[in-house]
Amino acid sequence: MNFADEKAKLSFASDYMKGAHPAIMERLVETNMMETGGYGLDPFSDSARDKIRMACEAPRARVEFLVGGTQTNATVIDALLRSHQGVVAAHTGHIATHEAGAIEAGGHKVLTVPHKNGKISPDTVRIFLEDYYNDDNCEHMVMPGMVYISHPTEYGTLYTREELQALHEICRQYRIPLYLDGARLAYALACPANDISLADLAVYCDVFYIGGTKCGALFGEAVVVPDPDLIPGFFSIIKQHGALLAKGRILGIQFDTLFTDDLYERIGAPAIEAADKIRTNLQKKDYRLCFDSPTNQLFCIMDNEKLQKLGEKVEYSFWEKYDDANTIIRLATDWSITPEKTDALIEIL
Amino acid sequence: MNFADEKAKLSFASDYMKGAHPAIMERLVETNMMETGGYGLDPFSDSARDKIRMACEAPRARVEFLVGGTQTNATVIDALLRSHQGVVAAHTGHIATHEAGAIEAGGHKVLTVPHKNGKISPDTVRIFLEDYYNDDNCEHMVMPGMVYISHPTEYGTLYTREELQALHEICRQYRIPLYLDGARLAYALACPANDISLADLAVYCDVFYIGGTKCGALFGEAVVVPDPDLIPGFFSIIKQHGALLAKGRILGIQFDTLFTDDLYERIGAPAIEAADKIRTNLQKKDYRLCFDSPTNQLFCIMDNEKLQKLGEKVEYSFWEKYDDANTIIRLATDWSITPEKTDALIEIL
Amino acid sequence: MNFADEKAKLSFASDYMKGAHPAIMERLVETNMMETGGYGLDPFSDSARDKIRMACEAPRARVEFLVGGTQTNATVIDALLRSHQGVVAAHTGHIATHEAGAIEAGGHKVLTVPHKNGKISPDTVRIFLEDYYNDDNCEHMVMPGMVYISHPTEYGTLYTREELQALHEICRQYRIPLYLDGARLAYALACPANDISLADLAVYCDVFYIGGTKCGALFGEAVVVPDPDLIPGFFSIIKQHGALLAKGRILGIQFDTLFTDDLYERIGAPAIEAADKIRTNLQKKDYRLCFDSPTNQLFCIMDNEKLQKLGEKVEYSFWEKYDDANTIIRLATDWSITPEKTDALIEIL
Amino acid sequence: MNFADEKAKLSFASDYMKGAHPAIMERLVETNMMETGGYGLDPFSDSARDKIRMACEAPRARVEFLVGGTQTNATVIDALLRSHQGVVAAHTGHIATHEAGAIEAGGHKVLTVPHKNGKISPDTVRIFLEDYYNDDNCEHMVMPGMVYISHPTEYGTLYTREELQALHEICRQYRIPLYLDGARLAYALACPANDISLADLAVYCDVFYIGGTKCGALFGEAVVVPDPDLIPGFFSIIKQHGALLAKGRILGIQFDTLFTDDLYERIGAPAIEAADKIRTNLQKKDYRLCFDSPTNQLFCIMDNEKLQKLGEKVEYSFWEKYDDANTIIRLATDWSITPEKTDALIEIL
Description:
The structure is a homotetramer of 349-residue chains. Chain A has 349 residues and is of the alpha/beta class. Chain A is built from 16 helices and 13 strands.
């Protein structure tokens, strides 16, 4: 294979372009020929679960390892909802847009609400729930059975702890669970602007997942359910969704590594530093950022001519058309970025 | 972690107790820091697809890599059936028993038919289809929309090429696809008793999958669709099932390795040799085998007292109660087995 | 239209060949131009609910009116099960055979067990549940989440109160609901051999339905849930299943009529008397009955030559081939049968 | 029962508050004791099918009778879509709002697009489809597999023939079916502003349904599929959805009556005349209509104080809050309205 062309370009297309953090690869090789039980019933998975419980200060939490984000969302949402309920999410929520209808395939409507830069405000949720229950015809409509948020959001923005707490309170009041998609959680944890800890998540969310795929693992997402009795039959539900890895220890080993010596909380730091530097330079050079996103994704409005040139040297994500002359693009940094790569991009910009 | 206890036992519990073939681990480490596109759109996956097409002598085939067996079955079956159709399978078929209702979760009934040692005879399928169409009330019943078989079966037995061809003919006649689950296909290919080649599968099956998880990969199953136009929208269907790996190259690299220098067709050989040797010794020592299974799974009727002793030194799978004094157990060998391990088991027996 | 041909034959094909009991038609005509609320929120439905509660001696019961049997089964089963659970039923259960996969369309497996003349014995259920929980791999299998029985069964047989109580006890022990399909319940209630009253159903079943379609209504089934808190969101679940009739009062009026002056408990009597008379005569004339079914369905083994002649004068249901020379047929009587019609059949036989 | 209170009010709440057109009731009574086959295989249903084919000038059309609107939409949409496809509909479409998630329960996303007074413009659909196919990530999104419109819309508005033709052309171009929900079709056909005939529907729609429930039947919707080969297995799909009425002739008799002497095309006339008169008077008295809706539903902005008084004498539908001082209400007329009732309302207004 000749990768010459690809290598010539700097990739800022996404945060899943490489393999895994070297520490993970080492551990996988080292343990490769050991024999263990399947389906997550192995000592590596158990050890990873313990470390995650400790990191989340949630000693009773149930922790399950799944393979990917769409799969995790579909599995958790099916597990939390009754057949006639739907899930409240932002119009921009991953489950509402880029999961090919996985939630609907499970029989549930995604009840979309307006967002601001990818975030749903507590008031938006409150009004949505009030409106539902105030509607005389509410029983003819899909009952909101849970709330889905992502942190960081699909737009790289962050909830504050205060906002998370407010969402939690509303959900409590209406007795519906709050579920947080942490596909890129490591980039929040490494971000100075973030004030939500793993322990906060375990307090304010009924279920959340700690993303591996985009945060240095080959693949894998760790679902945390602080109240272990919340989801009866969860193992079978995972199996039914085709989300139970036979060699579950591959997930256990990865998360055990990520939660050894706080690697997970540190792994996003290079991405955040690089994004900060790029952001500062973009602003310096009068590029327009769409909005303030403090994590590893930058959304920038680019003149189409400039963009074409950029595209010759840099891989980026097309986001959407801004107007006839301009385009919104996304630049994403990841855990593996080097100062050299960052500088090279800045040089090109 | 202390594995002392576990290590003391010889594991014949299943064929997914270890990591991956060393050649796969090497390749994963070697390519780890390269950057490639996601979702299977990478040169490793493309190369693996080409090699599989060549091995199957199916140059136009569509090849997609999924993560696990239950997931693959659910995805392929949903892709092949219309909403009112069901899938014909043996009572013992994996989809009918140990997939936690994944097929039904997709809305489809598993239409079970009698088996013989895990195999469905062509006559059984013919009669089932005839009976359906001859029934005045057939439109009130679930329409058989495809046939599912596994090779080797869940009982380690093998179809003959003649049987496969006959099943193919019946399916053609009723215009329904034939789908073959090859979770343990490498153990068939390495077995002298097997007369079905990869190329035969591409001729006689409408869809089949080449199992990785149980055949030396960390995980992964390669779905082969000889007629690439058979399943419109297959990529979206895979995504919708949460079966699209973001870092799809991890699958590509594994299958590229397995299909380099015919590794896949050789990898099962040690397991078959070991199983043969164990089988011969069991018979010599008057153990009763349940039926003749020529691949890597042996089903043996054991006196309960003997079994307890065996259990102190050997991990096996409980299959089912035979009678009050005896139990059916399964012993499985795998690609990584050594002559020493085989001999140690024989010694114990 | 010319019905001459059809009229020439005596119809014993099924119990839904006519319209409704005249009292129902009168009431529908009488109330036709009144204006009431929709969706079952009308005084007729309320009155019918009260009368059913009284007849069942279940003053707190929730009563909902649905349109047909398959719809009712699918709606109730979806309402009672969690996404990973299945429903235990006889191989011959209506949900397992003639509902075109409606239960699977809702995502649930029908877990079939052996029957005797259409009935499941309490021991069969007990063993099935024990086996599930004793299986090490049970979490890989579909969890039995409820039990479905029908009374009378699809074979016209009846459970005894003792059997019903035993099934109830087992379900209680495993904390799963017992659901009874009463599509032909009026024919049980009118049968001297039956010792299960409506009040017994309310004690021993978690949910049951009182069949209208086959018991003298134009259509309609009344679902009774003795514990009104058992199914949160039931109204929405009914709506979601397309089972909420806009002019719900049409159902209310029919059941209000059926439960006025105990009509429902009397309506099946002519059918039972006719079936008894036919049965006695069949036995007298050395016809072979397949088994003893005391209600309005008779299953008879007929010589094929005789059958052809019978078919010229009588409409019957083909049930299944018995052997090359004989066929099993079903003869069904209904609420509207006259002694003349019965005698005419006996004459022909 | 005492209906005194209810009777004291004039009901303009909806168009399903009464029973059926007297001609239907007569016919049901007249045919009540005849014996016919079940499941729509009866001469009444056949006759109704023929009359509908003739009225639609679609001699080859498949015509099936279902019970209610939500059920019909869910059944048809499941029948037309592949598992990974969704249905394009207005935000205000009945399937997007008031069907309790019936479409999602079948596994399909409702892909909502902006509307104008309940209508989707052809351009809106064109842009939506173009955007989907132009998106690099389209395979990660739900594929638009059909278009749903209603005529009259949920807001009482009407498509023009030109608009319908344009929608048809776009659907043809993208090879997806166009489906029209005619729950209130009789009110369009009776409306001078309407220029779409039944024959036009058969030309421009791939599937449409002729509403009975809101147009003078007790219940029932007639699904018309001009190309009879479009939906293989439709009978089973209807059964699977619990939408197959056992005594199907009850539907056949109703539609046979509605399509005798063009009753269906005339039945809405009194409702349209009444609505016109009310509309004129509302405008005369300076009530604000929300928008121009020429059929049997009027949407009016009412001062809250006035509304309270109105509510003492008239039943109306609350639609939504307009602002703190005003409310949008809906007034609906129906096929049974008398000039006296209309005048009484005008008097009150």
